[in-house]
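Today's session is about reading a structure prediction critically. Students often jump straight to the picture, but the first step is always the sequence itself: look for stretches that repeat, for charged clusters, for runs of hydrophobic residues. Only then move on to the predicted structure, which in these notes is written as discrete structure tokens rather than atom positions. Here is the chain we will use throughout the hour.
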Amino acid sequence: MALHFERSEFDARKDRLLIEMADRKLDAMLLFAQESMYWLTGYDTFGFCFFQCLVVKADGEMVLLTRSADLRQARHTSIIEDIRVWTDRDGADPTVDLRNLLNDLDLLGCQIGVEYDTHGLTAFEGRRLDEQLRTFGKISDASGLVGRLRLFKSPAEIVKATKAAQLADDALDAALPLIKQGGDEGKILAAMQGAIFAGGGDYPANEFVIGSGPDALLCRYKAGRRKLRKNDQLTLEWAGVFHHYHAAMMRTIVLGKVSKRQQELFDAARDAMTAVEEAMVPGKTFGDVFDAHARVMESHGLTRHRLNACGYSLGARFTPSWMDRPMFYAANPEPIAPDMTLFAHMIIMDSDTETAMTLGRTYLTTDGAPSSLSRHDLDLIVR
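Below is the predicted structure for this chain, in token form.
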């Protein structure tokens, strides 16, 4: 079996889930998020693009309903022993198969929590699921239950995140020699991803972001490549990934002479990151972290050039995004607590002057000040 944790780790996670289910008086959970299944059982696949469901009963019994293509995948990568297959056919409705499975598991009339808020359950399948369960039992939205358990990392998970951060640093080291006048964005991306693979890492849950010139102001990946020019700017956002655990970084790198505006934006980003670090402590909330960032941006006259969030939780994530919840945004009441892995990013995009500046890295929260997982400092990188 291709398990990345000891069986005792999975047992402890299931115990935590069962306690939460008991508190909510749930007889069963229907899990659709791939990260929930991976966290709970080790099941590792991109097959969640099709309908699948992990049923977890209050007594600890687990049954996976999936397609034939993932039968061996589940056997090889997970601790799941009971795996059922729904059949691909014209007019197939796997929610009927799920209802029949729930009936076989004696869950008729029971309290069932459903993980609705996930890319692993499309709106189409969700509507069909609701129709099948409408008279079956007492159904409630249990989205976020497993997600909040995943927010707090075990010692074994912190080892994975630390390795991921090392790979993120390696990716930056591989990119720097290629960041120069005439440098090719495609070769930079290849070097970064290659360094992560060479270090034993994995594909990220979403594409790396790269943009130079005017594209340095974009916060998302897009198709197309560009070669770097004299006095250019290059924005990179990437993540080291190890056993699906992510550690993200973000930098805007200046080629040639640093302009006055670039220095102003960098000074603001650095000040904001310092303020965020001071707020990323127990006793504060995710909203407090955002407020610390926003106050600095306001003091530099950059409110309209900042974003409405400045980071988020990280962990084991799958396509389409490595971003996890909760996020740093205004009034988010989630408390900061030890053993969270959190990505803080200062993103300033001045469209008036077409000047970009970003600064971001991943932290491990502690009983006191957060610990950066990166070996790189926060100085402005000039090539």
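Discussion point for the tutorial: The chain has a mean pLDDT of 98.
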